[in-house]
Amino acid sequence: MGLTAKYCINCDHTLSTDKYYCPVCFSDRLEEKRLSGRGEIYSFTNIYAVPKPLADQAPYYIVLVDLEEGLRVTARYNGDHVEIGKKVELESIDRRAYYFRPIGARERD
Ligand SMILES: [Zn+2]
């Protein structure tokens, strides 16, 4: 389990989308790399009105996380206190949704 992204072997740029060439140097020498899964909260919102299948989970936080590698991802937040700039790490990926928790938080059972 983890986050991956393509990066350019030619110029070391990490791509934010799944392209077939580097948007910086136009090289097609791309490889997949594993990301650290760590970053900090850029912004967040609290979701109260949800579709029916998620009704038992509301309210919950959606956060924008700036990853150490320079990419920004949208994720769910598993933690009590949320604030901009808070250090977070990837906890899990479930049905293509990312779940982040504060760094140092204990594993959930
Ligand atoms: Zn490049």
UniProtKB/TrEMBL annotation:
Residues 33-90 form the ChsH2 C-terminal OB-fold domain. Pfam families: OB_ChsH2_C. It comes from the Bacteria. This is OB-fold domain-containing protein. It comes from Halobacillus shinanisalinarum.
